[in-house]
Write a structure and sequence with these properties.
- By secondary structure, this protein is of the alpha+beta class.
- The protein has 2 domains: 71 residues, Ribosomal Protein L9, domain 1, CATH 3.40.5.10; 92 residues, Ribosomal Protein L9, domain 2 (Roll).
- 42% of the residues lie in helices and 22% in strands.
- The chain is built from 7 helices and 9 strands.
- The strands form 3 sheets. The protein has a 4-stranded mixed beta sheet with strand order 4-9-8-6. Strands 2-1-3 form a 3-stranded antiparallel beta sheet, covered by helices on one side. Strands 5-7 form a two-stranded antiparallel ribbon.
- Strand 8 and strand 9 form a beta hairpin.
- The longest helix is centred in the first third of the chain and has 32 residues.
- The chain starts with a strand and ends with a helix.
- This is Large ribosomal subunit protein bL9.
Length: 212
């Protein structure tokens, strides 16, 4: 479908341009949200007659978006979710969740404004882009962790999925001899001790036979 853009749309064109888009995209998003008109003679004439008003309205929206951007850009939000020891979430953080998270902090954002290609499925610090206006983008940080305490540790640079965090060891300091020491006195269970005693007895018997 050919449409006339009533504002700048990323990757499509500038205000006033006639572009071709998928029918579904036009009917479900561009037309009902007032971002475009069907491209025909009547609408072209209408756009030219209202261009000044549309440009003024677009400028006003951009200024409003910029005010929000000045407050929102770079903010970090803690998101507590259940996850396994390796950091894999039991679920995910999707677009609708991000809208709710920002909404709880007083930022009214629609799902169409969240630029998220794939849901977040691991703990960690995740950057998410928000399109407040066709010409105004901001980036927020989602601090996804199992608890608020872990989120605080993560914010200070700790990797919650490292061996140190999971098992309480410093994986960078481990050496091969830390895994097995042939000279160490390992605590054997009863069965192992019995087998060791039996083997020792057999060796002593063989030594006595040789000396006889």
């Amino acid at each position: 479908m050919d449409v006339i853009l009533l504002e700048r749309i990323a990757k499509l064109g500038q205000m006033g341009e006639t572009v071709k888009v998928r029918d579904g995209y036009a009917r479900n998003y561009l037309l009902p949200t007032g971002r475009a008109l069907r491209a025909n003679a009547a609408n072209k004439a209408r756009f030219e007659a209202e261009r000044a008003v549309l440009e003024a309205r677009n400028l006003e929206r951009r200024n409003e978006a910029q005010k929000i951007a000045d407050t929102l850009d770079g903010k970090s939000f803690i998101v507590v979710r259940s996850a396994g020891e390796t950091g894999q979430l039991y679920g995910s953080v999707a677009t609708r969740d991000i809208v709710e998270i920002l909404g709880d902090e007083g930022f009214k954002i629609s799902r169409n404004q969240v630029v998220l290609n794939h849901p977040i499925k691991t703990v960690g610090l995740h950057k998410v882009e928000i399109q407040l206006h066709a010409e105004v983008y901001v980036t927020v940080e989602l601090n996804v962790a199992r608890t608020a305490e872990e989120a605080e540790r993560q914010l200070h640079g700790e990797d919650l999925t490292s061996a140190d965090a999971i098992y309480g060891v410093d994986e960078d300091a481990l050496r091969p001899e830390d895994f097995f020491n042939p000279d160490a006195d390992y605590d054997l269970d009863d069965e192992d001790e019995a087998e060791e005693a039996e083997a020792s007895g057999e060796e002593e018997g063989e030594e006595e036979d040789k000396n006889a």
